[in-house]
Design brief:
The protein is an alpha+beta fold. The protein is 37% helix and 19% strand. The structure holds flavin mononucleotide. The site of flavin mononucleotide has 19 residues, from helix 6 and strand 13.
Length: 436
């Protein structure tokens, strides 16, 4: 019995589901996608080694009035987020206090003073100069995606973490990612209730520094977003993956498979800054060697406390020197298909959307979830979704590093498996193509 697998099966999309469920969507006002800290003082991001990562990897990169649901202002972020609902929050545990990242200002809001790292270290069972703790607020993304929004929480954390890990490595901070921690203790350490807002992952950084704020009168955070709708299937799946003690954490945990690759800081930051979901592509082919290099980065080790469980399959429509078909991540041909059929299938399985049809390649993140849960328990389900998000995030940034465009897509789960002739579950999909 696995609550995570039950959750996954119950939230698979079949053709027609989206339309049938529509009545429940968009109920009530759109949840705020930022916490509301009022006019409490913001401290500069440069006070901590985590600041530049959050600014460049998770900040607001542009705003447009009238473009949000209901005509409000939408704030675009450095990472992609399904439906632009941004359910992820970031906290910094530094030597002189606990801070919340406010992407709007941008700046840090002091939540409490004292060395906040000790509580996080105790929950994680590892030390660091600075910790960044990511949390998820399902009700934000649930407003559109309902129960399935729990998957989106992990994917969005993954696209954000792809940025943070790469920037941290470029900054020489030797990033380590922890999925294993004592849930109750970590939630308590950052002031999350564990239900409406829950700790997802911890990024440990080598460097220290004091932000220089500490807590000040009136600086208690006013949470925004949480409360609201509840999602019992997702809550059950999350709860059954919880770890109750450091012993449980240690027996769950694995050694990282390797270090985060180090890229040129400036080029990386520029690509992240420019990234946006690109859904229209030129009809030219992509160069094979560059596609290989992009896939190699996406496939590279993630410095996490779990071994990889995700594999990637690539549908190739337009790459120099490759016949159209389904390939593995090393570009070995698995099954040839006529280009026209390939593009039609991409359109259909991607919930009848055009960008995967127009793309030169589509990269699917897949996992054998039965095996994942057998070996890693229900917590493995969290990791599978997050790993997919990180690899998908690397693909999007890597496409921009090469001057291409990319966009993630949702899909009809079983149709993807059928088309790719696999029993593995699709977790995410990224369409990639040359810019027009
Ligand atoms: C997990 C995930 C799934 C997505 N699915 C779709 C999709 O099915 N169709 C689409 O057009 N865009 C999709 N997107 C892209 C988002 O709409 C986009 O990231 C968001 O609107 C923010 O815009 P930006 O990426 O241009 O910054 C997805 C993004 C993520 C992270």
């Amino acid at each position: 019995v696995s609550e995570a697998l039950d959750y996954h099966r119950a939230t698979n999309y079949l053709p027609g589901d989206w339309e049938n469920e529509e009545a429940d969507r968009y109920a009530g006002e759109k949840p705020r996608v930022f916490k509301d800290y009022g006019d409490v003082e913001r401290l500069p991001l440069d006070g901590t080694v985590a600041g530049p990562l959050l600014r460049d990897g998770a900040g607001v990169v542009g705003s447009q009035e009238g473009r949000d649901y209901g005509g409000g202002t939408i704030h675009w972020r450095a990472y992609s987020s399904a439906g632009g609902l941004f359910p992820i929050e970031a906290y910094v545990a530094a030597a002189d206090g606990l801070y919340s990242f406010d992407p709007l200002t941008p700046g840090l809001v002091a939540l409490r003073d004292g060395d906040a790292r000790a509580d996080v270290a105790a929950a994680v069972g590892a030390e660091a100069g600075t910790f960044v703790v990511l949390t998820g607020i399902h009700s934000r993304t649930g407003w559109k995606y309902l129960e399935r929004g729990y998957r989106h929480v992990w994917w969005d954390a993954g696209t954000m973490l792809a940025n943070l890990l790469a920037l941290a490595a470029a900054d020489g901070l030797a990033p380590r990612l922890y999925l294993g921690f004592v849930d109750e203790e970590l939630n308590a350490a950052i002031g999350a209730d564990g239900t409406s807002e829950q700790a997802l992952a911890v990024l440990a950084l080598d460097g220290g520094m004091e932000v220089g704020g500490g807590s000040r009168p009136g600086s208690t955070a006013v949470p925004g977003g949480p409360g609201g709708a509840r999602y019992p299937l997702a809550e059950a799946a999350h709860a059954s993956g919880a770890l109750a003690s450091l012993d449980a954490v240690r027996s769950w945990r694995a050694e990282p498979e390797g270090d985060e690759p180090v890229l040129d800081r400036e080029e990386l930051a520029r690509a992240i800054q420019r990234r946006a979901s690109v859904r229209k592509y030129a009809e030219t082919q992509l160069p094979r060697a560059e596609v290989e290099a992009l896939l190699a980065w996406s496939e590279a080790p993630i410095p996490a406390d779990a071994q990889r469980v995700v594999r990637q399959a690539v549908t190739v429509a337009a790459v120099e020197g490759l016949e159209p078909g389904v390939y593995d991540a090393q570009l070995n041909l698995l099954a040839a298909h006529a280009e026209r059929e390939l593009r039609e299938q991409a359109w259909f399985v991607a919930m009848e959307q055009d960008h995967p049809k127009r793309a030169a390649v589509n990269v699917f993140q897949l996992a054998n979830l039965g095996h994942v849960v057998e070996t890693l328990g229900d917590r493995g389900y969290r990791w599978a979704q997050l790993e997919a998000g990180i690899r998908a995030g690397r693909l999007q940034v890597g496409a921009f590093l090469r001057g291409w465009g990319a966009a993630a897509s949702t899909f009809y789960d079983d149709e993807v498996s059928r088309w790719l002739e696999t029993d593995d579950s699709p977790l995410l999909l990224v369409a990639i193509g040359p810019r027009r």
